[in-house]
């Protein structure tokens, strides 16, 4: 029996509704766009037919490294632009469904341009177009799932999106392996994006708009009809949930959306935005996209060949992401995973870099086979540590710490920081470092040093958000001035207490206890 103001229990069960689960699983497939386009260029860069078509020499040099950086960054640039603009201009204004359709069409169009590329400029154009599409779907997809999924399994279904990103990277590596020596192999790998985009466009015919968006546009009857279908035809459940949506929308309308000026001038808005942007920046600059987009180049420089050593790191990444998002994050907490995950990433990169430098033969330019497999082991460990912590954790964390009034703008800024400066810098630096005297060993050591510098940030600037409502999270960042920042750092150093709880702990220490 449902209590007044409460949803009946059956709404929250894992078997709540096969239609809701199917719709969410289908929309989560757009995570393949993100992972596949990011990972497919990894081995395409090493295909003989591709290098011949682009006029690149067999061995990488500074010029080729620069073109590789531009090619990878074409995707990042497109995604960064659309990440900022899509949330406000498309997703919030016109709906999640149209955003998914437009993003999928652009992804397919970008894939077609890449597959048909006759030169590097055309390839980069295709990467930009596909990036714009992925920027849109990476905003609309998780938002759609979060608004449609039953509450009890919402986190798991959103996690499927991120796991699809990982699975797509593995799929790209497998396909590249089998078509590596074909004359049209690289065109097949890049052209698969067209099929993926068209598949989603066709499947969207069976997908509804989210009830929350419909309600926000005053289409209450339509919202109730769709929500009833999503909740096993139980109109009582749907009506109660719609009332909660209406109450939340009224609250949003009363508070209003903050201006851009308020985002940067109001201290507690600015604090959350700065920490969110740094979290997204560090997620990329600690080396993950170097491993995803340039692992083929890196392994080639290490003298490692074969499908197994190429695949294992990505399988490890996928496994770590699944363990972290499904099993650990709500038990161990966000801060614990981000802090210790970064420490593990640091150790693995340091060990791999030192091993590569020590085992490198300056005369032959090769690395001992045993040392090569030790380095692969450290990369596998790094990928698992990243997957279990920062892979999904950075995205989850920024969605939890942003105040309601600035959430749209703030999450857009943080996403743009990830796609833009972090990805662009990483994509330009990585091939240049591998091709330089630093080599693969110096490259790994560089990212190990970056990880080392991020550990103090994770220890002092990331309050724990596990088990807290939004109303409880926001005050943790509500400080101003150096004295407030010192209390914020002190509270986090004491276990992720943040600002308000740090003040409370400080006060509690001064209160005498009864004996």
UniProtKB/TrEMBL annotation:
The chain crosses the membrane at residues 12-33, 70-91, 98-118, 124-146, 158-179, 185-207, 272-292, 298-329, 336-358, 370-398, 410-429, 441-462. InterPro entries: MFS_dom, MFS_sugar_transport-like, MFS_Sugar_Transporters, MFS_trans_sf, Sugar/inositol_transpt, Sugar_transporter_CS. Keywords: Membrane, Transmembrane, Transmembrane helix, Transport. It holds the Pfam family Sugar_tr. GO terms for molecular function: carbohydrate:proton symporter activity. The keyword Membrane applies. It is found in: Membrane. It catalyses: D-mannose(out) = D-mannose(in); D-glucosamine(out) = D-glucosamine(in); D-xylose(out) = D-xylose(in); D-galactose(in) = D-galactose(out). GO terms for cellular component: membrane. The keyword Membrane applies. Residues 23-466 form the Major facilitator superfamily (MFS) profile domain. It is a multi-pass membrane protein. PROSITE patterns: MFS, SUGAR_TRANSPORT_1, SUGAR_TRANSPORT_2. Its main location: membrane. Belongs to the major facilitator superfamily. Sugar transporter (TC 2.A.1.1) family. PANTHER family: PLASTIDIC GLUCOSE TRANSPORTER 4 (PTHR48022:SF2). Homodimer. This is Hexose transporter 1.
